Amino acid sequence: MPIHEVSLIRPENLQTHEQLVVDGVDVSGHWSTFIQSRAITDYNEAMQDEIAALPGGENVHRCWQCGSCTNSCTVNAINPDFNPRYWIYLIRLGMESEILRDKEIIWQCVSCNKCTYACPRDVVPEGVMKALSHWMELKGHVPKSPSMVFDEVFSEQVFARGKIEEGRVMQRFFKRTGQDLRQPWLIEMVKRMLRHLPVTMLTKLGLATFVAPSTSGWSRARAAIEEYVHEQEHNRRRALGLDGLIEAARRDAGPAAAGEGARS
Ligand code: SF4
Ligand code: SF4
To answer: Model-level pTM?
Structure first.
């Protein structure tokens, strides 16, 4: 599978001679541009399977590198370095270190799903991007992203009560990500709600934030859902070879951390 985009060649791998004559022909400047050869030896042969084990990455093996995802991508239109086709190519080859060179931009996917609709092979590139971000976090290559923290806060509330209260989700999300709750946009949103929503609805919303009601009969469903989710998480960690590491970290951190980890 050849790479065609010139933009994918790292600037440090390009060599140009300001003054060069070859067989009497002046090839100075860009005429003498060479691509430095590289030998990559640290392949992760399990990488495609690791991505496929995470939600969204299941169809990564189907890609035939047509490039429709990158051509239609919202973020690629403003940043040519954002290239889902290329990252899928690297995943399939197991070129982990090469992917990690782009770890600062991979998270920028806005989940618009344009790539998913353009893909002729049903790869669901948006899902692969999510799986790749998740993979980088699980492997410790990047810190937990705000969207991962949001997912955790959201899921915890669903597990606990069978429903979510928006105010509570936002409060916890801001607290865990170290952000001030008094964001200008949030203050403006609350002002507008106070101006336009009926009093009964506002009272209901306010009460629900403080009282946090549960879905009736939720405790029976909760046990089954939690068991399923923990089983899935265990399978993913095992697929990524993380089980031993996580258990060791829990043992080192003591029983409190073990209980906390079971909810994440
Ligand atoms: S979902 Fe992500 S990768 Fe797909 S087109 Fe949108 S920004 Fe690009
Ligand atoms: S559009 Fe689909 S098949 Fe084409 S490169 Fe992207 S993921 Fe692969």
So the answer is: 0.72
